[in-house]
């Protein structure tokens, strides 16, 4: 199967999933509203603290808001197009993965568009927070308009990194079956941690978030240059390289892991 045919097939599967979901428009609107409310309330709690004390180790409310927004939008992009990777445990436990194995296409391609959902609430919340934080910093001269395309770039590379981490974590399920606890560490806890500057954490923890579970490359590392002029423009090359390496390793791990899969009926 060529790349062009795979992309075409993936698009067709997404359209089919969207048509199925949009049959329940009220549920879609309500879920989007609740998702945005939950996301914004989390940042508001941090904003109250920052408003009272001014900054966290020199990081202003705008800068922390930027970290929040980039992580939210990167995660939203990943979970929009590959949400079922995060839910692989369900397929392993129920045996639904067997059905995907019988399809004449790569298993990962068949898995990714299952139950495709438009995460409108997260997009609105993340987009508003990004516009507010970048607008504030541009307005006071901390950064320029070049930060906009640079930010869009790191949101895309961040989505690739988060997808790679999610895929590697899901692949462990071929041996353990249950992976929800591991996902809590590698995806949920790590993603929450880098919504704040890594300088807040002990050296060993920041090292883990940069090397072992490299979520620090999603927002913190590039933000040092975009917002503060630290490091250098080479940071974008490093971020793209980190995304490429993570993707290549996770795909290789997935191909190896799926050979170890034992059907629920075996």
UniProtKB/TrEMBL annotation:
Which Pfam families is this protein grouped with?
A: ABC2_membrane_6 (PF06182)
Note the InterPro entries from the entry: ABC-2_transporter-like (IPR010390)
Alphabetically list the UniProt keywords: Membrane, Transmembrane, Transmembrane helix
This protein's name = ABC-2 type transport system permease protein
Write out the transmembrane intervals: 28-50, 118-139, 151-175, 204-227, 233-254
């Amino acid at each position: 199967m060529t790349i062009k045919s795979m992309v075409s097939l993936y698009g067709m599967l997404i359209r089919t999933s969207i048509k199925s979901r949009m049959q329940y428009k009220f549920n879609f609107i309500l879920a989007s509203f609740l998702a945005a409310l939950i996301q914004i309330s989390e940042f508001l709690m941090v904003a109250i603290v920052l408003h009272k004390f001014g900054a966290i180790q020199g990081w202003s409310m705008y800068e922390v808001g930027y970290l929040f927004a980039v992580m939210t939008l990167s995660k939203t992009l990943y979970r929009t197009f590959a949400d079922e990777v995060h839910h692989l445990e369900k397929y392993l436990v129920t045996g639904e993965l067997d059905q995907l194995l019988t399809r004449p296409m790569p298993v990962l391609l068949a898995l990714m568009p299952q139950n495709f959902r438009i995460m409108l609430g997260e997009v609105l919340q993340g987009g508003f927070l990004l516009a507010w934080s970048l607008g504030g910093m541009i307005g006071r001269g901390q950064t320029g308009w070049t930060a906009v395309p640079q930010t869009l770039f790191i949101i895309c590379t961040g989505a690739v990194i988060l997808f790679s981490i999610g895929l590697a974590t899901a692949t462990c399920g071929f041996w353990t079956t249950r992976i929800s606890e591991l996902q809590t560490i590698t995806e949920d806890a790590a993603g929450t941690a880098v919504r704040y500057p890594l300088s807040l954490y002990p050296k060993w923890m920041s090292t883990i978030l940069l090397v072992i579970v490299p979520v620090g490359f999603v927002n913190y590392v590039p933000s040092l240059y975009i917002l503060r002029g630290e490091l250098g423009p080479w940071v974008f090359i490093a971020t793209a390289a980190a995304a490429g390496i993570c993707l290549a390793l996770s795909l290789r791990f997935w191909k190896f892991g799926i050979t170890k899969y034992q059907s629920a009926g075996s």
